[in-house]
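Practice problem: F-box/kelch-repeat protein At2g29780
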Amino acid sequence: MALTPENSDDGSNGGDTTSDDLIFEIEIDNLAPREEDENLAPIPPRQIPELLITRTVALVRRCHYPRLSLISRAFFRVISSPVLYRRRLQLGVTEPVLYALIGFPYSYERFSRCHILNLNISESLREVPTFPPIYPGSSVVTFGYNMYVIGGLNGFNHPVSTVFVLDCRFHAWDNLSRMHRARYRPAAAVIDRKIYVIGGCERHHAYDGWIEVFDVEKRTWSTVPDPSHYISNMPGGGFVTSVVMQDRIYILDALCALVYEPRQGTWQSLGLESSTLMDFWRDPCCVIEDRLYSFDVLCVLKHPIVVFDPVEMVWNPVKGLDDGLPYLRYSVCQMANVGGKLMVLATSNTIYNDTWCIEITLERREGGEIWGTVDSKDIVLISGTSPSIDLSCSVTV
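Answer key — structure tokens:
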């Protein structure tokens, strides 16, 4: 796996663990010597000890790394080394970074491409050219600094069993061992350092590998016997979407909602409660602090964004956003949890096809009401044709 930092800007929305006094750039050519240092010989960048570079660069925001890697070979080696990211983790200065899968249905390219959002730097979505194209219908989960891309559709009615991992530290990628079965639109989730993949293929019996588990540390797949009788109602055995709440996998099917408890290997059908959950659960959605956020497109609850409490099994509106959201196509957008904030990516409901990013801070007030505050709303992608936003997710680096 080649670990080559890019020369294009990389970034994030900034973690709340770093303060402004730690956010700085090293500009060797522009350092003005103090009067008492005029007689001291400058230290060439190539002679700075790598340990000192590591300790210093670890405090710098990651979006500046591409330029810092050009200072000298020593800087390049440090920024290309996992040691630097272990140091950042020890210092508690890791940052959540937003990635999105963007496709253009009316172009010759039928695959989506991975883009990174450089908030507070260039405020634009930029393609990550070193990442491979993503098959439609793939499921993507994140664990630490990695994104795992699972299955998908390669051509008409041809699901694949391929899995690859994207290393978001260095924008490198590697193939993993294949699943036992090819899958299209499977449910996927990370629990206890294991990736559970459910469905996305026709089911025949309890031991046909309908559920597979990937051990992140051992990098091996195993199948899980499932004596239940749940079968997806969607063509091909796929699902609409899935999320994790309370260490359980909530799965949205075309006609019902299911809950899988991986530790016990048990299923639960929500019964009459399923209709309540499905009132507003759509794709897009995301989970923040064990609560499910989705769009109320018709504003039935008189607010555009709603939140589901899995304990009380009830939907409530997110208040305070009525005047802060632009006029967008919320039915074809994506949501993501970025460092505890709600991020919305959507195209404008105009002829210009601009893609916006809305950053929302959430607050739980007395009485249990959830209020949102729009921190920023910016155009992050301008394109001639209408893009499809297939996925957005956050990775910590």
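Discussion: The radius of gyration is 23 Å. Students who identified this feature from the tokens alone can consider the problem solved.
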